[in-house]
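For the sake of clarity, the format in which proteins appear in this thesis is described at this point. The fold follows as a row of integers, each naming the local backbone shape at the matching residue. One such record is shown here in full, so that the layout can be seen directly:
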Amino acid sequence: MRKNSLKNTRINGEVQRVLAEIIRGEIKDPRISPWTSVVSVEVAPDLKSCKAWISVLGDENARTATLQGLKSAEGFIKRQLAKTINLRNTPEITFVMDQSIEYGVNMSRRIEEVIARDSEAAGSNGEAAAAADSGL
């Protein structure tokens, strides 16, 4: 099976969906943040290994605690994955922290700040120009 084949793409999507359900509803570890999402999953063509990119909304402590909780629950997650998805091999899951959502939120906030500053500067320039026009 090739890496970008249709079958591999479907397996990636199904593993991502099931992992999200397991993390959201079945794991009882208090270290795992309730704001954890599975961003992407990449299953190897031989179905032996899997990389799961997760994103956690919160500070650095929440991210590290969630990653530790997920790593300690790998056996349970793999067992639940094997029960739910009928694959020849159940892949070994490696969790990788993905910070793209947080990066996007920070960039949006910065853009909004720049727009607010520009509109304030345009507003004060417009007032100065109006005052100068009325003085003529």
